Every structure is written in C-alpha cells, then in structure tokens.
Amino acid sequence: MKIDALTERPLDDRESAILNAIVYEYILTGKAVGSRSFVQKYAFSLSPATMRNIMSDLERMDYLMQPHTSSGRIPTDKGYRYYVDSLLDNYHMDYDEEKIIEEKLIQREMQLEKIFESVTKMLSTVSNYAGVMLSPNPDFTVVRLIELIQIASNEVLLIAVSRTGLILTRKVNLSVRVTPGELVDYSSFLTGELCGYSLQKIKNEIFENLRLDSSSNNMELALDIAQLALNEIEDSSINIDGIENLLKIPEMVEEQRLHSLLNIIEQKALLKNILESQIKKEGITILIGEEIDSEKVTGCSLVASSYKVGNKPVGAVGVIGPTRMDYEKVVLLVDYTGKAVSGLLTKMSG
Questions:
Q1: DSSP readout, 221-239?
Q2: Tell me: the pLDDT tens digits for 218-251?
C-alpha cells in the first residue's frame, strides 16, 4: 500500500497559521469554514482558489474534513489536537476572572464537601460547559477530632473531623451495650491517640501500635469501633455540574454524543477512572475526542488539571465539553482553578 507523502510531512508556517485560524473560526461559529468567506475575514493574502487548495491538502492530511461535498471544512480530532498543542506552546497564565474563582472558593463555609460543590459549580458557570471534580481520597486527610455518639442501644455513630474541615461519618453496630459515659471516654481516648495522623497512617500503623500498647487494653472496644468505621470510609468521589449547559449545544444532542453524555451522567465510575488517570500528570491535560480512552465517551473533549496538598497530587478538576470547545478560555480556567484549590487545601491542612 502506497502512503501519501503529503500525510507524513510537518505543516509549513502558512499551513499551520491557516489550520489554527480555521479551528478558531469553527470554535467561534460552529459553522463549516468556506474558502471565500474565510479569505475575506482573515488577513491571508491568498485567492479563494489557493485557499481551497491548501484546505484540500489539510483534508488529505486528516486535519480537516468536509461534512458534505458542497460545504466548507471542519476540524478533525487531529486538527483540534494541532490547534491545542499550538495553544499550549504559547501558553502563559494571565487570567482575568481570578476574582470570580477566589470568591467562589474562599467562603465562610470551610467544609471540604461544600468547597468541592462550589468549585464544580464555578467551573460549569464560567466555562458554560460541564465542570467536574475528583475529590481527594480521604486517606490523605489528617484527623483533628473523633466523636462517638449513641444513636441506639447497640448502634454508635463515629464522626471524624479532619484539619481541612472534612467530616466523615460511619455507623457501627455493637454486640454489647455501652453507656454515654463510656462513649465520652472512648471519644477522648481516640482523639488523643489519633489526632495529627492521616487516615492512611492510622489504618496502616497506629491501630496496630495501640493494640500492642498494654496501657490501651481497657480501650479495645473503642479501637474496634474506630477501626470498623474508618476502614469503611469510601475513596475519592466525583462531583459534576452543568450537564444542562451541554444540552444547549446543537452538536451535543446528536445521537452519538448524547449517548456519551448519558454515560457520563449514569456511570460516574467511568468519569472517575478518566480523572484518576490524570492525577499524577503535571500541568494541563487535554483529551480530544477519541483520545479519551473509552468507547462510551465519544465526540467530547476533557481539559483537566491535578491539584495537590503540599507536593502530593490528591485529586483533579476539569471541564467536559464538545470537541468544538473554547480551549483558550477553558485551559486558563482549569489551570488557575487547579492552582487555587491546591493553595487552599494546602493552607487548610497546615
């Protein structure tokens, strides 16, 4: 099979500028780009015929496609990827909407759950697409307080409060009765012994050390309750907001893309797996169309960034939209949000 040499060569400067302008125009208008109107709008000193030839070359190289024989061209996933890579090559943080983000993040309510909801809502509101956030695995949180509350004669509620304001609750069924006074003592003991340690260290080391300590012998039931409750703490979860924004975009309600949206809504584990794969990556990640490694999500793009507590990546924020996404705006938004969340959580955990 003979390979067209045209598809193998890099773009020259003129082709690069024209391709990026075509992608930008399509993102802006959502309409296929024709050679005559394009030449008139953009400052290329070329005739419509020359522009048609260049567009034809870009189509043969799979950067553009022609939906109908009589229509103009639209970008392919490869064309979007070229545009995004060019954007990132010249990228620098200069975000005009920082105050909006700060106001959304830094609120009087400092519980993590509320912050995650605010961040996701803000991402969808500012981008006009869907905002997503993968919360940290609770194992990274450092315990500040443990409280045991009796809710029935043989049922106890454990409340764990972290330094960052994360509140974790779990019910534990008991085979023996405990008095309110005993629960007060247990709460005091557990707070004293577990305060200042991460959940991960508590589960992996501290419980075992306390059981070996003879001075803790009369607190076996307290340790049993805490261990049962904390071992059941769920891992990271997904917040998503703004799906209704996507339903207002004409191409997103086409059958194939609508199925993708329904999969995202109904199968949060799918989105969670995609975001988890981004946590350890530095900087902004952009997945376009088929680059999202799932047959159940097609015709969409994801812009994501990890966020950290200190130097440790613990979660991710992002925006999901059509492949015809305003990447320039969304990259800035997601990058700044990741940095803002990192700063806030690091400060809260200090």
A1: HHHHHHHHHHHT-----EE
A2: 899 999 999 999 988 767 889 999 999 998 988 8
The two structure tokens encoding residue 161: 């409060």
Per-residue pLDDT band at 97 (split at 50, 70, 90)? low
Question: Which amino acid is it at 258?
Answer: L
Angle at 183 between CA 182 and CA 187, to 5 degrees: 120
Angle between helices 327-349 and 112-127 (to 10 degrees): 170
Using CB atoms within 10 Å of the CB of residue 319, give its burial: 0 to 12 exposed, 13 to 18 middle, 19+ buried: buried
- Rounded CA-CA distance 157/167 in Å is 12
Q: Are the CB atoms for 112 and 135 separated by under 8 Å?
A: yes
CA dist., res. 313 & res. 305, Å (int)? 10
Among residues 279, 282, 299, which one has the least CA distance to residue 290?
299
pLDDT at 1: 40
* Span 125-131, average pLDDT: 94
The closest alpha carbon to 241, from 83, 337, 118, belongs to: 118
